[in-house]
From TrEMBL, chain A:
Residues 17-98 form the Lipoyl-binding domain. NCBIfam families: gcvH (TIGR00527), PRK01202.1 (NF002270). This is Glycine cleavage system H protein. The modification N6-lipoyllysine is found at K58. The lineage of its organism: Bacteria, Pseudomonadati, Campylobacterota, Epsilonproteobacteria, Campylobacterales. The keyword Ribosomal protein does not apply. Binds 1 lipoyl cofactor covalently. InterPro entries: 2-oxoA_DH_lipoyl-BS, Biotin_lipoyl, GCV_H, GCV_H/Fam206, GCV_H_sub, Single_hybrid_motif.
Amino acid sequence: MKKFSQEHEWIEVNGEEGVVGISSYAIEQLGDITFLELPEIDSEVSAEDSVAFVESVKAASDIYTPVSGRVIEVNEALLGTPELLNQDANENWIYKMIISDESELETLMDEKIYNEYTESL
Amino acid sequence: MENLQRTALYEEQMNIKCKMVSFAGWEMPIQFDGIIAEHGFCRNDAALFDTSHMGEFFFKGNIKTSGINEATSINIDTLKTGKCKYGFLLNEKGGVIDDLIIYRLSIDELMIVVNASRAAVDFKTITSRLKSGSLDDRSKEVSKLDLQGPNSKKILQKYFLDENVNLDDLGFFSFIKTKIFGENCLLSRTGYTGELGFELYIDGKTAVKIWNALLKEGVKPAGLGARDALRLEMGYSLYGNDLNEEITPLEANLSMFVNLNREFVGCQALKKQKEEGLKRVLIPFKTTSRRSARKDFEAFQDDKKIGFVSSAAFSPTLNVGIGLLMVDFETFDENRSFELRDKSNKNRGSIEANKASLPFIKK
């Protein structure tokens, strides 16, 4: 099950591992994605840190990590074809991490609450 | 979006997938299907733009004696009826109040097409420079559609079969007065995308009819987002970005549109600037990656500031970032690459770029 941050990242948790991506809502707002910078593997990140960024034809936006931990893998397929995010933002993850503080997950929204949140924006 | 003006096509646009933004006091579509798709459609087929927000003034009077010929940089006196010309409304310092196109409707009649954001100040300025004649702002009653793309002529020709209009005969920056759906239409072979294209000046009801008819033909609507990438790929200037009251046409690298051998407001300042030598000029650049700079990014060589970005976008044709950069001649070395930085977000690092030549894409 995915959980969502106010900054529009999603995280899917499998044990101590988390898979992070950007919400469809955020991608829809950004429009055609043209460039993506990925986080550095092995970097230690703290919740709400800016760890990477995404550029679209219209705008540029930081990607914030929803929880703290260590980055273990990045989706390099997105470097050459960042438009994959426009095709499916839910399937095309950005990076995987080992979560260091599971309690931070509780601060995130489930999908229903997140959808209500984006409707209010 | 409160207090924003809407074009006659607003309802039609809201009935299809469309994203509206506030632009120069108007609620305008920035995109329909997506900026890159719309851009491609204009380059390869035909795209339709609603540009009804632009201003249209009508002048009637003596071109030689009324003051209209000195009001802008455009020499109307030598402009033939049925032709139009691009140029500038300048202040006394040679700064650009607006860029505009003047259409010679007859010996003593003109249509002046201006940017929406500048229409009010343009009208006041031109009026103040007239000794005689009349200037009438009909922006509210005139709608404007731009059909741009290699297939535009073929598609549009279909609507003029009964009128004995052959669009093959219409040269670049020429126009005709004709009828479409029985209503008056001024049709010009102009546009701001670099493609073969036409601009249609009609009333609001006719604009709706044409919009729906062309969409039925398979033409795709395109918004301001695609328009921005298309115009920048050709290196065309955008008012508010590359041109403003502090920038002269010489600095904007547009000296081919000002003839300094005739009198017009701002001419003396431009002559002086030319004699003294330019201190800065707008140059085109390409980034070395898919990263694009944005307006107001700063440019550096060896950590020394060399200028600022006035326009920038991702080029769907070239797959790199492109843009226009105002550089100071004293500090800029054009033979070396430079770094573009976002002063409001240093975390994203700098973008490497090099001087390029115009147009960015060869047509």
